[in-house]
Amino acid sequence: MSGSIFPVFYGIVRRIPAGKVATYGQVARLAGMPRCARTVGYAMAGCQDPAIPCHRVVDRFGGTKACFDTFAPGTQRALLEAEGVTFRPDGTVNLEQCLWHPDL
CA–CA separation, 62 vs 87, rounded Å? Predict the structure, then answer.
């Protein structure tokens, strides 16, 4: 099942604009699978398509994940900062400012 739902998650993630982020749970809810945030994480971690901005998906606290640090530690944060995403002093994304709110 998880392999067949990955393209749905990827389609949602492609809609996240630069400068915004979504949480794993948010992507799962938008896909109609509200209890599958972990599956979204697996999909993002395993994605090999550079056209899918997986770095724009963070945990529910705004935390980044080491699986996106493909070039060096802090890669996900650097990619997000380059797009204008702001971080709090504790190193998490400022979700109040940067959380994506899709028009549904």
Answer: 9
pLDDT in tens, 28-54: 999 999 999 999 999 999 998 999 999
Q: CATH classification of 2-97 is 1.10.10.10, yes or no?
A: yes
What 31-34 contacts at long range (C-beta under 8 Å, 24+ apart), as own/partner pairs, is: 31/5, 33/5
The residues, any chain, with a CB within 8 Å of residue 88's CB and separated by 6 or more, are 62, 94
98 is catalytic: no
Q: Which is the catalytic residue, given 36, 47, 54, 98?
A: 54
Rg (Cα) of the chain, in Å, rounded?
Answer: 13
